[in-house]
Specification:
Blueprint lengths: L12 E2 L5 H13 L4 E5 H7 L9 E5 L5 E14 L5 H7 L6 H14 L8 E12 L7
Parallel strand pairs: 1-3
Antiparallel strand pairs: 2-5, 3-4, 4-5
Length: 140
């Protein structure tokens, strides 16, 4: 793979998911256009001192091996409780069968294994668009 294009050298870099396999699976959903939203526990961003998502910011998405794979641009950021997430947002996350029930089951398990789950926990809910893919043939 080529180096990260100069225009993205200072971008926030992250991966969706918490295991290499899940990171690759979620990245594939982004690349296919099925995943246009994501969420994370507000406490995790605060505790890690990570930057909050910002509308208009472009971030580099890493694959399961930690290599830059795509660039996304944030189009919406809201803070809401887990139990306030609606069907539209669950569908836009693009995971599982796209239902709210499946979203809740999968995300409850994810948060439980990553610091704890509570129905009233605050989430950073972000919508985004795919700007470009990065790969072996990409020219910087």
């Amino acid at each position: 793979m080529t180096d990260l294009p100069e225009r993205y050298r200072d971008a926030v870099q992250f991966a969706f998911g918490d295991t290499p396999a899940l990171k690759d699976e979620l990245l594939a959903l982004v690349l296919s256009g099925k995943k246009t939203a994501t969420c994370g526990a507000l406490r995790d961003v605060k505790d890690a001192g990570e930057p909050m998502p910002e509308v208009g910011r472009r971030d580099v998405v890493l694959d399961g091996a930690g290599k830059p794979a795509a660039v996304i641009e944030t189009t919406e950021v809201t803070i809401r409780r887990f139990d306030e997430v609606d069907e539209d947002f669950a569908r836009d996350e693009g995971e599982g069968d796209l239902s709210l029930a499946d979203w809740r089951e999968g995300h409850e398990a994810f948060f439980a294994r990553n610091g704890g789950f509570s129905p009233d926990m605050e989430l950073i809910c972000e919508r985004f668009r795919l700007v470009e893919t990065l790969g072996d043939d990409e020219n910087a």
